[in-house]
Amino acid sequence: MISRKLWNSIWPPLVAVILFLLIWQGATTLFHIEKWILPSPVDIGRQSVAEAASLWEHTLATLRLMLLGFAIGTLFGLVVAFVLHLVPFLKSSLYPLLILSQNVPTIALAPLLMIWFGFGILPKIIVITLVCFFPVAVAAMDGLTRTDRVMLNYMKMIGASRGEIFRKLEVPFALPAMLSGVKISATYSVMGAVIAEWIGADKGIGYYMMLQKSSFRTDNIFVAIVIIVAISLMMFACIALLEKWLIRYKPEK
């Protein structure tokens, strides 16, 4: 059974989505909009059933690529955050460059990565890693700097080493911020995988979208978009559950 608290948080957006779909369906029917311009939700649902076998294969390919890139990007982001936090000189030197690196669009880097590393899986993993690591690194560094000063001074007074302070105080205190960054990274990883597949792939949701664009199959493109949104929501929900399991204590507001 769904608890009342959970139901109260679910029903407002659920009603909004249902109303949006009803308005969409009514508009396409009332104004006789061509399917190749804007298919109705019913058309998209029918097409998803018709293309189920092919879509499942492409979805699995995207999931494998996305999960691998997400894991590497998250780990890389945490390592960068930890190193920059523990070595202040590196943080003051490299943090501005870290910010500047995000001003280069990923879609612009992808063709260069294909030229440098070929059309295998490596450039695709690099694209997803570049997309994922930044939110994790920034959130982790921000969380590490917000450690409770009273507890920090207390641990220093009792003679705790720098490593003990980092492991037993700073990392646990920064865990909520880290997981917030991981949630953002999880949703970005799907976008990164699709962008990587746009540049060069022989399967995956991004590759499927490019094929349908060439055929002007707008309905199939919408099906692919629905799948991308569903994967993003699934990833976000998984990290949210992990956060709920890891962080048992939350102070009263």
Automatic annotation (TrEMBL):
The keyword Transit peptide does not apply. Keywords: Cell membrane, Membrane, Transmembrane, Transmembrane helix, Transport. It is found in: Cell membrane. The chain crosses the membrane at residues 65-87, 94-119, 125-145, 177-201, 221-242. It is a multi-pass membrane protein. InterPro entries: MetI-like, MetI-like_sf. Residues 59-240 form the ABC transmembrane type-1 domain. Pfam families: BPD_transp_1. Coiled coil: none annotated. PANTHER family: ABC TRANSPORTER PERMEASE PROTEIN HI_0355-RELATED, ALKANE SULFONATE ABC TRANSPORTER-RELATED, MEMBRANE SUBUNIT. Belongs to the binding-protein-dependent transport system permease family. This is ABC transporter permease.
